[in-house]
Amino acid sequence: MSKRIIARKLAVTGLAVLMTLSLTGCGVGDPNDDIIITEEIEEKTVNLFSPMEKTDPDAENIARSAFDKTIAIAEEKLGVNVAYRTYTAEDYQDKTYDDVTLDRARNNMDDLYLLNPDTVQKLGEEGELLDLSDLACVKNLREVVKTANTVNGKLVAVPQEVVAYGLFINKDMFDKYKLELPETPEEFLECCRVFKENGIETPIGANRWWLETFVFAQAFADIYNGGDTEAEIAKLNSGESKYSDYMRPGFEFLQELIDKGYIDAKKAYVSEAIEGEGADFLAQKTPIVMAYWGAANTETAYGNPGFNLQVIGFPSSLGQMPVVTLTGFGIGAQAEHLQDAKDMLDMILSDEALQVYTETNKVISPSKNVEVDCIPALKPLNDRIEEDVYVLASNAGLKLEQWGNTCLVVRELLNGATVDECMVQFDKLQEETLDK
Predict the structure, then answer these.
(1) What is the 3-state secondary structure (H, E, C) of the chain?
(2) pLDDT in tens, 291-343
(3) Could you tell me which residue, 62 or 120, shows the higher pLDDT?
């Protein structure tokens, strides 16, 4: 009887599993009897670092489930196993997810990374991320996706969804006072005035994270919709144009909202997103809040409000303006399993996989070929995005990181800083960035 032992190295678990197949032979005195042939087959593996928790398989997490479905498609078709390496706060108590990601990517610890916008920008500038331009899926991407994740001419990250922010509106309260949904800053202020005069103490529920969405809508409406986007960005990156000139109208608008009592600045300064303003919105004490697309799809946020919910863009000179920010998957430029990682990413970003992801998670797809079957409340916001009307709140092609820096300066405004003082901060941030 001859025996064959196949040793397979399963990198996902780090354990070697031996599978023995016994073959029954006949004949006496065969010289090949008792010969043991050992063949090692290396199982293809991609190491993924992300914040998605995998330790509790019973936890309800729609986003994780959608992602896992696409991974399963890729694993089956490519014969590649994904090793999940996840972030937990107890492992890195003094560091943010971004801090840990930067450290791991710079030290080539993983193959594939789920990256926040500012991390995409930093690692792209440092040359730590692979240019993904030659992936087959790229030809199907929306322009907004490629614009937001291109650094020095290289496409360094691609997301599974486009994250859009909008104004969540209690349409019943607008109807009660015969108000049209606002398009411009002036119309928005008029709506707030009517609400205030009719006894609604604070028309806008706000938190310390998302008020910058008002600023972006007004600051960059022209750049991304009809202007020469590349030329304007080049001027900002060279210092020929000042960020403060773009940001000032939005900050002056926020200051007016605060001065007239339409926003409670003190409460907003200490409020976490949704937790701070969500209860009043659901109780119909305030008619307007701001949130991201997914908050309308889940019952833990605003998905089942008990009134006619509408999600629209932010007021701007060009009408209701969605504000878009993008996370993205990037591959380490020196990844150990580089080709397998490219094949894996190409598969999970294929139209086939993105269709599964989009249907499961009910989000906007990065592929122009995959449409989301959104709930009626989200249709106004989705219609604008389908028309390619939006502004980017994260653009890796801009040297000065937008989202985080603007958020911090807005918080200074909430804490009592003047608009002029906030603009000085932007000029300083721009100078420091360009001097590096």
Answers:
(1) CEEEEEEEEECCCCEEEEEEEEECCCCCCCCCCCCEEEEEEECEEEEEEECCCCCCCCCCCHHHHHHHHHHHHHHHHHCEEEEEEECCCCCCCCCCHHHHHHHHHHCCCCCEEEECHHHHHHHHHCCCECCCCCCHHHHHECHHHHHHCEECCEECCECCCEEEEEEEEEHHHHHHCCCCCCCCHHHHHHHHHHHHHCCCCCCEECCCCCCHHHHHHHHCHHHHCCCCHHHHHHHHHHCCCCHHHHHHHHHHHHHHHHHCCCCCHHHHHHCCCCCCCHHHHHCCCCCEEEEEHHHHCCCCCCCCCCCCEEEECECCCCCCECEEECCEEEEECCCCCHHHHHHHHHHHCCHHHHHHHHHHHCCECCECCCCCCCCHHHHHHHHHHHCCCCEECCCCCCCCCCHHHHHHHHHHHHCCCCHHHHHHHHHHHHHHHHHC
(2) 999 899 877 789 889 999 999 999 999 999 999 998 899 999 999 999 999 99
(3) 120
- Number of C-alpha atoms within 13 angstroms, CB side, residue 367? 23
Handedness of CA 269, 272, 274, 276 (dihedral sign): negative
pLDDT value at position 42? 57
Q: Find the range with the poorest average confidence among 1-15, 116-130, 283-297.
A: 1-15
The span from the CA of 218 to the CA of 353, in Å, is: 35
**Distance set, CA 229 to CA 212, 399, 425 (Å):** 21, 14, 24
Least confident range from 55-69, 83-97, 170-184, 295-309: namely: 55-69
Determine contact, residues 174/166, Cβ cutoff 8 Å: no
Q: What whole-number distance in Å separates Cα of residue 3 and Cα of residue 356?
A: 44
Of 15-24, 93-102, 232-241, give the lowest mean pLDDT range: 15-24
Confidence band, pLDDT 50/70/90 cuts, at residue 1: very low
Whole-prediction pTM: 0.79
Asked if 295 contacts 168 with a C-beta cutoff of 8 angstroms, the reply is yes
